[in-house]
Amino acid sequence: MDDLAVSSAIRVTDLVVGFGRQVVLNELSLEVRRGEILGLVGASGGGKSVLMRTIIGLIPRRSGTIEVMGIPLGRAEERATQEVATRWGILFQQGALFSSLTVKQNVQFPLRENLQMSQTLMDEIAIAKLEMVGLRAEDGDKFPAELSGGMTKRAALARALALDPAIVFLDEPTSGLDPISAGDFDALIKTLQQTLGLTVFMVTHDLASLNTVCDRVAALADGKIVAIGPMRDLLRSEHPWVKAYFHGKRSQMLQPKVS
Ligand SMILES: Nc1ncnc2c1ncn2[C@@H]1O[C@H](COP(=O)(O)OP(=O)(O)OP(=O)(O)O)[C@@H](O)[C@H]1O
Ligand SMILES: [Mg+2]
């Protein structure tokens, strides 16, 4: 299928994922549109990271279907699935970078794994990606332990962008950053979406990110997506968990925009 004809970047239908007797995702359905920034919220331990990891094929599913760019994953022949896998980049919640590799080597890791290219070309690409995320070429020679938290997130984002993906998965990209750095990171994501046409699937608890950069927000509760839409719709949701999340005491203090 011509992928320009497919308007959804990701389509998850009736997904069931569990570990032993624990069912984490229970017939969950979700569509991520092409070119949008979708924010995912949910209780801690609710299954956000599991959902992301299942979509990218790191956790097996019990049932349900997952399509990325119109290609069903797992059911497609091996090669088609492999092709899709080079079209996304991932910023994991934990262990964002390989500690024994320099930043530059980290960014080059997906290139080395997936493509055959000269060291000179890989160096040029690494520098371009570092600049794209607001790091300097010199930062490329540092090891992860020598970076600040914000620089680590940027370096991990540079690695996620290494293969020029159509989709990036970000698992709590701004957690642990001060509000100004988090705001800068959000602005960077927005710029990348606009300039590269990226689709962004972002797990976040950051109400400012949800309010300012996400085109739509999805709420995960009881193993399902219980509300999805622009932030103003979520603020009006009657679902008890969504209501408690956005209108609870802590979020009141932040006074999210209503319209
Ligand atoms: N590999 C695994 N094996 C067994 N259980 C797992 C595994 N990964 C996750 N779980 C369980 O699945 C549930 C959902 O975990 P998950 O990491 O998706 O939560 P989360 O929504 O990302 O939470 P947080 O906001 O704290 O990151 C938890 O109960 C967790 O213990
Ligand atoms: Mg998580």
Descriptive terms for the model:
single chain, 259 residues, alpha/beta, Rossmann fold, six-stranded mixed β-sheet, four-stranded antiparallel β-sheet, 10 helices, binds adenosine-5'-triphosphate, binds magnesium ion
Question: What's the helix and strand layout?
Answer:
Elements (H helix, E strand, L loop, with lengths): L7 E12 L2 E12 L3 E6 L5 H8 L7 E6 L2 E2 L5 H8 L2 E4 L11 H12 L4 H14 L16 H12 L6 E5 L7 H18 L2 E5 L3 H6 L3 E6 L2 E6 L1 H5 L4 H8 L1 H6 L5
Parallel strand pairs: 3-8, 3-9, 6-7, 7-8
Antiparallel strand pairs: 1-2, 1-4, 4-5, 9-10
The structure holds adenosine-5'-triphosphate and magnesium ion.
Task: Explain what this protein looks like in three dimensions.
- The chain has a single domain, classed as Rossmann fold.
- It is of the alpha/beta class and 259 residues long.
- 37% of the residues lie in helices and 25% in strands.
- Helix 3 (103-114) crosses helix 4 (119-132) and helix 3 (103-114) packs parallel to helix 5.
- Strand 9 (216-221) and strand 10 form a beta hairpin.
- It has helices at residues 48-55, 78-85, 103-114, 119-132, 149-160, 179-196, 207-212, 231-235, 240-247, 249-254; strands spanning 8-19, 22-33, 37-42, 63-68, 71-72, 88-91, 167-171, 199-203, 216-221, 224-229.
Summarize the structure.
With 259 residues, this protein is an alpha/beta fold.
